[in-house]
Amino acid sequence: MNTDIFKINIKQIDKKLIEYAAKKLQNGELVAFPTETVYGLGADALRPEASEKIYAAKGRPSDNPLIIHIAELSDLERIAVDIPEDAYILAEAFWPGPLTMVLKKSSAVPFTTTGGMDTVAVRMPEHPVALELIRQSGCLLAAPSANRSGRPSPTSAEHVYEDFQGIIPVILDSGSVSIGIESTIIDLTETTPMILRPGYITPDMLSEILGKEVKMDPGILEPEGKTRPKAPGMRYKHYAPNADLLLVDGDRKSVVDFINQKTREQQELGKKVGIIGTDETVSQYCGDIILSIGARDDEDAIARHLYAMLREMDAAQVSIIYSESFLTPRIGQAIMNRLLKAAGYQVLEV
Ligand code: TXA
Ligand code: MG
After folding, report:
1. Of 58, 50, 48, residue with least CA distance to 28
2. pTM score > 0.85 for this model?
3. What is the mean pLDDT of the chain?
4. Nearest CA to 310 among 150, 127, 193?
5. Cα dihedral sign, 130-131-136-137
6. Which protein residues touch ligand 1 with a CB less than 6 Å away?
7. Which end is more exposed in the chain, N or C (fewer Cβ atoms within 10 Å of the end residue's Cβ)?
8. Is-contact 248 327, C-beta < 8 A?
9. What confidence tens digit (pLDDT) does each residue in 11-23 have?
10. First to last CA, the chain
11. Separation of 103 CA from ligand 1 center, angstroms?
């Protein structure tokens, strides 16, 4: 299959290109599109044979449900039932935006799309191309991150192409995304709302708007194996680069010294070593591939660059990666959630 990449300028959206992609969706085919978080791999959410194609293309386990993307609030009622007041309060505050809500599903949503669950995850993305595509197609779009299962999520159309060249017909390309990590997922089917995946919208932001406590799924706060995370996707090893990734935490000088010492040891064994540091530290390292994720106090930049760094390390075919750790004040929890999973929870305190 030939994979077309269409560049779309978000300030002047070419409706003809969107129309072409919308037709593909109407025909039950897959289209990759930008959102503000990461690129998504879209299909008509209400047709089982369309969403099945997503699982096949990604190599995704069939019990890992998909998020449905909508462009109008009224569409919420087509796919969810028993919608609590909290959902409308959160939609008013955060939609369109990087927040996904888990609600009871309606009979319109096939179990293929929800991985067999009787709940459905819904989000309204804050990206003009995504919204235009949903509107023009007249479909609600099931869309996971547009990466092959287990690969880092795509933050640019090139990343999508790397994983799906020859496998999907169309990629809409609006350049690099603005956030870089996937949406926060909140489950509203429990008495107390529960965060199933941390993201750009923090627990504090959610509890402030709701005027009540918001829990964090205990399953995502500790290494895999102890408590089972409620979101199936959070149970799988994920976001993994090919190389072994080790996080190093401590004061700046000790971290730099430790990584440099480890790097020398690995290089003596003939290994190619990658290092992920910050603008403040990169010049102090001596690895084979040294990347800066951004300035340490710019947590938005850290989130935005994270997955591209991991992909770059894969492309450079390093055999081991040492990375600084980034428990920054606001979205550090979301950043570290992704990085810890990528590292298989290997952290060294120095
Ligand atoms: O930012 C995002 O959310 C991106 C963009 C494309 O919108 N999408 C995304 O989708 O990250 P995906 O498939 O990579 O991750 C969806 C996560 C998985 O962990 C999945 O298990 C969980 O959402 N999920 C989906 N439906 C669920 C449900 N009904 N109950 C619990 N977890 C659910
Ligand atoms: Mg994903």
Report:
1. 50
2. yes
3. 96
4. 150
5. positive
6. 35, 37-38, 40, 64-67, 98, 100, 102, 114, 117, 119-121, 123, 125, 143-145, 182-183, 185, 196-197, 230-234
7. N
8. no
9. 999 999 999 999 9
10. 50
11. 13
